[in-house]
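Summary for the steering committee. The consortium agreed at its last meeting that each partner would contribute one worked example illustrating the joint modelling workflow. Our contribution is presented below. We chose a case with several input lines so that the handling of multiple components could be demonstrated. No manual editing was applied between input and output; the record is shown as generated.
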Amino acid sequence: MSELVINNHKEVSHINPEVYGHFSEHLGRCIYEGIYVGENSDIENINGMRCDVVEALKELKVPLLRWPGGCFADEYHWKDGIGPKENRKKMVNTHWGGVVEDNSFGTHEFFELCRQLGCKTYINGNVGSGTVQEMSEWVEYMTFEGVSPMADLRKKNGHEEPWTIDYFGVGNENWGCGGNMRPSYYADLYRRFQTYVRVYNPDKPIKKVCGGANVDDFHWTKTVLDVTHDHTLPQFHGFMDGLSLHYYVHPEGWEIKGSATEFDEEVWYKTLSKALYMDELVTRHGHIMDEYDPDKKIGMIVDEWGTWYTCEPGTNPGFLYQQNTIRDALVAGITLNVFNKHSDRVKMANLAQMVNVLQAVLLTEGEKMIKTPTYHVMHQYRYHQDGELLDSSLTNVENITAGEWSVPKVTESVSVDKDGIITVTLNNLSVDDKETLNVTFADGDYEVVESTVVTGEIHEHNTFENPEVVTEDNFTDYECKGNKATINLAPSSVTMLRFKAK
Ligand code: AHR
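What follows is the complete predicted structure of the assembly.
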């Protein structure tokens, strides 16, 4: 029996809504088919965006969307994706499946999608194969209000008003697909490129994100900060607002990856243990950031995270299409609890990717769309957005060992919203054991006002034939009295409870 004490008056840090952000790349069927079907499609759409997908995403309260990549970002030349569609350049998406990219989804379409979703925008610029001029002109095209060559071009293309760029990424994975650079070389390029990401409207500052490390490349983090930190001082406000980090969970390693749906119990625990590794990564990269930025002004931007399996048999390997089971629900629950706990430093995180790619929240097939187990967890956790992390501690938690892998049976995070409602999210990592959790609020009496669970046999997943095998269900297996609650967590489950003071 584990014990959770919630210090309900001790707020620790703010949970930026952007921690629940998403990522959409020109990769496989994420943008095309998954989100954008074009105005002439038989699938119901508004300005080319699938209505079913947009509606489902709105229920998640998607706070922010990153685009156009990923590796695609450092091959993307934005001028190919503006103007009349029939004149837009067709090119080969060399990185992802060698398919034709007709550029029918470009800058205008991205902002239209974000308008429909009501979310913030995160544009990733091209450092690897682009120029400073190209990047600078893109920013001018998107955000300059007055008379200028790029603002005039935007107006000619039908958009009078400038858009808002909330975040701008200066390159992506520049240690790899974004140019195979060494950290000091990239850091110098960052200094140069970011200079020309001009903020034309001081009321709408663009937060600049510097390309960070892959997984445990602490040398990258240290070197990049070393080369740039003289400009991270207050007088260089706006020089760097975020430093990114990418981490994917591959159950069997990068080469083999492993099946999305066929795995044994040991691989279940191995996968969850690898998901928990996010905590160590955020902590250790965070310590390096603390050396240069003790006041935590620069956010850690985990702009790609999620599971990455061997793609579904029979699909294009370059499309990264995979199924999504209860295991993915637990990976999401564990990882989001880690981000909440580190919300003093982690200011944004983007699940990779939004539709039909990697740990997607939605899958589509023609006109059909299904919600994955990960979708339901993101829906449970939406209440943490914009909340204040509360001090909470778990004791008496059993450790589960399988082969060389070991995980705690339960993980948690707790936040309070503006109305004083406390959201508790709990994961039971055990394949077959229930767990009774005793909760104590340090002060005051509480009642449960909402509670749901996402659970099932560990391989369960939704298909187009059976779309509701895994859903978010009402949860009733608890008792709440005074300042205490006893909660019976089902095996392999993600449970969310909301408490209100009596
Ligand atoms: O999300 C798929 C790919 O993973 C992205 O394009 C790249 O940034 C990362 O390696």
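Residues 25, 69-71, 172-173, 304, 352-353, 358 surround alpha-L-arabinofuranose (CB under 6 Å). DSSP finds ten helices and 26 strands in the chain.
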